[in-house]
Amino acid sequence: MKTTEQHPKGLVAIPVLHNRGPASQLSRHFGKSPGFMLVDPALQTFQYCESASMKEAGECAPISALVGQGCAVLICHSMGEGALTRCREAGLEIVKAAGGTEVAEVLHAYALGEYEAFPESALCRHDHDHCGEHAHGKEHDH
Questions:
Q1: Scanning 11, 12, 35, 78, which has the fewest C-beta atoms within 10 Å of its C-beta?
Q2: Least confident residue range of 37-41, 93-97, 110-114, 127-131
Q3: Contact at 8 Å (CB) between 38 and 12?
Q4: Which long-range contacts (CB under 8 A, 24 or more apart) does 86-94 make?
Q5: 114-133 pLDDT tens trace
């Protein structure tokens, strides 16, 4: 677990189920998230972005748009291996969500350094028992 307060400059993206600012519930899966809360930790600002309006053709999640908005960090519970690779290639730091189920709780844990780099165990391999929000039959990475 990281314990320093050295965070990259830029926005933090968190997949969420709805737009309730800091009280937004985290989505269990990056690629199936209806939206993202973009947070500026220094200014404590919250901006909700709907996934569908941000995605490029063929994307399950709006990785390019998140980076284009200035995101440097992605905090999430689970994602597919392809999405993880694309996020890393795009320069995002991906960390495992910790500290609770709402944006404010997860941000608090992140600010305290109570997080870890995204672990292999959190990868979704389409077995559907830990990713929770799947409702499709397509085989592709999120």
A1: 35
A2: 127-131
A3: yes
A4: 87/63, 90/63, 90/64, 90/66, 91/67, 92/13, 92/63, 92/66, 92/67, 93/8, 93/117, 94/118
A5: 999 998 888 987 544 444 44
Measure the CA–CA gap between 10 and 124, rounded to whole angstroms.
27
What is the Cα–Cα distance from 134 to 100, expressed in whole angstroms? Answer: 21
State the Cα–Cα distance between residues 70 and 25, nearest whole angstrom: 22
Q: What is the mean pLDDT of residues 77-101?
A: 94
Q: Where does residue 44 rank: exposed (0-12), middle (13-18), buried (19+ CB within 10 A)?
A: exposed
Contact status, residue 77 vs residue 26, Cβ threshold 8 Å? yes
8-state DSSP, 123: E
Domains of the chain: 11-120 (3.30.420.130)
Nearest Cα residue to 100 out of 88, 109, 112, 92 = 109
Say if strands 79-80 and 116-117 run parallel, antiparallel, or are unpaired: unpaired
CB of 51 closer than 8 Å to CB of 61: yes
